[in-house]
Batch of 3 targets.
Target 1
Amino acid sequence: MHTSNFTAWPEFELRLRPIPLSLYIVAHSILAFLIVIGNSVVIAVHFKDRANLTPNTMFLGSLAVIDLLTGLFAIPLAIFARVVISSVTCLAGSRILFFSPALVLCAVSVGHLIDLAVDRYIAVSHPLKYAFLMTRRGSKYILMATWIVTVSFGLLPAVGAWVYPDQWVCGTFMNIVLWYMVMGSP
């Protein structure tokens, strides 16, 4: 008789009891659902009316794409990594993969909010020069630069996770720091 040590699924346990776990998952699922629906509407309106594409609407459309990706990928992965304790979710080398989308998309979202603030500042402080200062082409370059800089910045925490990829991080101070960075408070 042949026995194997291979198991298809790693052993795991849940961090929360059934009722708090249910509340946690329901609350974050509702949030993700509203994020996806709301930003899908913004994207649909944005792409439907391409003739009136202004620098401001370009920034808003790009921000809606970022927020849609947050609702589709970052929130579910962060929920999974926060709730499940296993060899997949608690080793530093693999845990950062669950939180990297949230960190990257958060950085890109903040970059887009800065772009929007600068755009609105120019529109208010120099209304007669706005059309010359903020063109479609210039806005595309600003968006491209924002994406490159903020994705690079958002990936920085992943570099530190590869120093000790086999280190167990669940329940450690680093886990608490990641939790506050990604989700707010426990």
Target 2
Amino acid sequence: MPPSPAPPLIVPAVTKHTATVIMAHGLGDSGAGWIDLAANWRRRQKFQEVKFIFPNAPAIPITVNMGMTMPGWYDILAFDDLKARNDEVGIRRSQGYIHGLIDKEIADGIPSDRIVLGGFSQGGAMAIFSGITAKKKLGGIFGLSCYLLLHDKFLQSIPDDNPNKDTPIFMGHGDSDPLVLPKWGQETKAILTKEGWSVELKMYRGLQHSAVPDEIDDVEEYLNAQIPPIGDKGSL
């Protein structure tokens, strides 16, 4: 078993806490690598009712990096075709951890449909997999520069009532990504769409394995649509 991950970084809501966004980082990164996302929105007084959670992956050996230990949600066995060989044990472990974060928010009084799960690269792959397999209806699922995990068996993990069948999924991907190839994002959309999910995939011209302001703006628009502020209009 890998060591326990460091606690998530938390950016609390400014006003009444009515929604939560969980944002998972990519391979070799940490929650701190994405905390500027929330800081930028705070400076602009966006998502005042939203608590942001930036979890930290455990440090594990990564096969494609000569077994070096680094933060990772699961091992990557090969880069030639990320669909072909998945570390199912690591994926299931991280899925359980992310579902636990969701359960804690629900226990703290946040309705599941006011919780959005997102991530970048490995974190995006985990967000999509954990989102569509969640046992409660979520407010949204987004993945940036990512792909579908366990593509040949993920349907076996979908709850019988499939509570997130109608949860819109947003994907963003650079059309010049040399690491997570654009076609893997396109194939992910095709597979999920075929199975009945509503997936919006936006491609960003010239973008490699990173994120750009236009993409973050699109995530902001997505969050505005999925978890609009409640304010004084009602109570949870």
Target 3
Amino acid sequence: MAKCNKKVGIIGNYGACCGTSLGKMVKKIDISQYAKYTCSFCGKTKMKRQAVGILHRGSCMKMVACCAWTYYTNSAIAVKSAIRRLKELKDQ
């Protein structure tokens, strides 16, 4: 009987050279790198990474500077939610 191919996912590009712990870190970066993000201008999930730190939306013709591998950093999310909360307290 023939052997079946092992399903390794996106980490199969790197083979056995990087090991499991490095492979998990690379997998996390690769998945976020190739993901599509929500456009903050039109609301559609079509923003794609064009280069390191640049996201581009073709039909809106908009470009956004962002973090190297993700759209938002964790600290930016925390600051944004704090500003929103303070605005709500001010309006009350």
